[in-house]
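User: Predict the structure for this protein chain, please.
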Amino acid sequence: MYYGFYNYVLCTYVLNVIPKHKDRKAAVRKILRLLRPGGHAFISVRRDVKKSGWTKNGTYQTNRASPEYDIPEHKFTCESIYKNTKFEIYELRKVEKTPPDLTAGEFNRGE
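Assistant: Here is the predicted structure, written as C-alpha cells:
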C-alpha cells in the first residue's frame, strides 16, 4: 500500500456490508491513511435498506453506515454532499493542519 499517496479514493457501497461498527470505522481509517494531505475520499452508502441484518443471499446490509467517525490520528472534514431515498454520498477531505478559520467542532477528532 502507498499510504499518504492518493489524491482521491472512491468507496461505493462498502460500509453498508460491513457488519460491525468497529470494522466500518477501521475501513474509514484505512481510507484516510491512503490519502495525502488535501486528498479527498468520496464514500457512497445505501439509504434504501429497510432493516439491518443478513440477507437471504448471505450478505449483511445496513442503512446506518456513515463515514462520520472520530479518528484521532487523522484530521479531516466530513460532509454529506448528496442524499436521496436510495443513497447518500459523503466527501472526506484530509487536512494537513487545522485552518485558522475553522473551529475544532468542524473536525472529527478523538476516538
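DSSP finds one helix and six strands in the chain.
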